[in-house]
Design a protein that fits this description.
- The chain is α+β, with helices and mostly antiparallel strands.
- It has two domains: about 1-125, Phenylalanyl-trna Synthetase, Chain B, domain 3 (Phenylalanyl-tRNA Synthetase, Chain B, domain 3, 3-Layer(bba) Sandwich); about 140-210, Phenylalanyl-tRNA Synthetase, Chain B, domain 1, CATH 3.30.56.10.
- About 30% of the residues lie in helices and about 20% in strands.
- The protein has helices spanning about 1-5, 85-90, 100-105, 110-120, 145-155, 165-170, 195-205, and strands at about 10-15, 25-35, 35-50, 55, 60, 75, 140-145, 175, 180-185.
Length: about 230
């Protein structure tokens, strides 16, 4: 549900089947993944405890560490991993899961933290004994608000037409002021004011812009002489 509701891949283990000190390392060898499928993998990103591999990061769990109806102690894992390694892991087991599809994209720290909060809320009836490596969210990006650039790109002098679009973006976590725009962490793809302009135009609707014909000056060429082209 964490994946479906929040967009953050997560995995749950039977904690009694694990030792301490989980880590993420490259692994090559044979494994039995969920569904009792035997696979041979090479250089995949695996979650390991002190003794064995316990899952393939953001790809698939293993039969040996899965939780069951008899499980009383659970361990939930959320991580941010290299998307290329996640894609490689899915190819190695020749099986794409919802988790690997999402993990193959960029997962922001904000989304991962929301996933952790979701798990804590959903398991409020369980005793949470310990949280290891609390997810730290990066400082919010601040981008200078360039009014002149917005006028240039839109071809409009009256920027009040974008007020409703800016209100909608504000509901999504963007903070607009006269001098800057604060970008929510989950929008890792917004890095420049041109990205802000694109978001404003999307919510304003490109269909509201009046198309204008571009004036193109045609050029005539002269005959070739000595394999050279003169204008």
């Amino acid at each position: 549900m964490t994946l479906l509701e929040i967009g953050s891949p997560a995995h749950v283990y039977d904690a009694s089947k694990l030792s301490s000190n989980l880590s993420a390392e490259l692994y090559s060898g044979d494994l039995t993944i969920l569904g009792n499928k035997e696979v041979s993998v090479k250089e995949v990103l695996a979650i390991k405890d002190d003794k064995n591999v316990v899952s393939l990061a953001s790809v698939m769990g293993l039969e040996a560490t899965k939780s069951t109806e008899q499980t009383t102690n659970y361990l939930f894992e959320i991580g941010i991993f290299d998307s290329k390694l996640i894609r490689h892991g899915a190819k190695e087991i020749k099986l794409a899961s919802n988790s690997s599809n999402q993990g193959s994209r960029f997962i922001s720290q904000e989304v991962a933290k929301l996933g952790l909060e979701y798990i804590k809320a959903a398991s409020s009836n369980l005793e949470v004994s310990n949280i290891v490596n609390e997810i730290k969210v990066d400082e919010l990006k601040r981008i200078k608000f360039d009014e002149n650039k917005l006028k240039t790109y839109s071809g409009l002098n009256d920027l009040s037409v974008f007020d409703e679009a800016i209100k909608q973006l504000s509901r999504l976590g963007f903070v607009f002021s006269k001098d800057e725009v604060i970008v929510p962490n989950y929008r890792y793809d917004v890095n420049y004011f041109e990205d802000i302009i694109e978001e404003i135009f999307r919510f304003y609707s490109y269909q509201k812009f009046t198309p204008e014909k571009i004036n193109i000056t045609s050029l005539r060429t002269q005959k070739r002489s000595n394999d050279k082209l003169y204008w």
